[in-house]
Amino acid sequence: MLDISKITITPEILSLISEIDEFKGAWQLHGRMAPERLKILGLAAKIESIGASTRLDGSKLLDTDIMQLLFSSQTQASKDERDGAAYIRAYDGILQKHQKLSLSENCIKQIYDWLTHIDAEQEGLKKEKNILNNDEAFDAPWKNLNITFAKTKLFETTTPFEMPEKLGELVLWTKTQLDQKTLHPLLIIGVFMVLFLNMRPFQDLDGRLSRLLVMFLLLKAGYVYVPYSSFERIIERNKEYYQLALERTRESIELNAPNFDIWLTFFLKILQTQKRNLEHKVSRDNKQREHLSELDNQIINAIGAHEKLSIMKIEQITGANRNTLKKHLAFLVEQSYIVRFGKARATWYVLS
What we know:
By secondary structure, the chain is mainly alpha-helical. It is built from 14 helices and five strands. Helix 2 (35-56) crosses helix 4 (79-97) and helix 7 packs antiparallel against helix 8. It starts with 10 loop residues before the first helix and ends with a strand.
């Protein structure tokens, strides 16, 4: 399917892989953090990932809206809310079942099924071109990719007739490369993502599905820290470079001279930024928590362990006086450690 000799491993790509893999090993130490603190990091990353990934496909939901979806049992009224709820289902499904699943066409369809909800606008296989607008700002790390900005037409899609065979070929190539370790797994996953988006097998959901599949493949490859830092948020903040890196790869594929250098460099920079963000969060969390009182830390850990709690439950867990708790809760809300929802007896708290 793909001549791997066409994949050039530049010194920059090699350096990026080395840095990411060094952190992968170091995470074994970070992974021994208290479970409730890992849960706090995971919840924050989950909210960021779901919010960013759905917004990349046109949703208007803010992270606070995603948080509300996570902790509310109300029926989703809008399409954006239904999309958000479906993404939550798919995200949770991957985290819970990735160890038992292996990459296959059925696995992709399973994740697609989690990602879908009943909506008249979703009709299975994609049959037309997709146009993406370049309308977001970008960050400095991508300026050395040497790509020119323009309105981008992202990939001619594979026809429905060709789709089953092409998707099967892509899955087989990816599985074979990962099993034989012919290439580094990060390169294989990066190439899989760009070829999947080139193919675009499902209508309207391919962007979200591709990002979920990347998370799935990274977890399968042993990058177990991925759920604690959002790479989707980084893509959202660098949307223009994301689209253009994909477009340059598409152009090379159309010319039958595949060149993955720009895309793989961008993809690895995303993963580099993801791991650096996590390093920063762990370091910052350690320093900030040192200055909190014992009761403050008990409150944060309790909410992290249960995802949301009322003041009555916090009182039962900590054994603290109700009036004292109110003061500490107000301080933690003010300092953005936790968020308050509801009023009076219906008040409950989640992690910020």
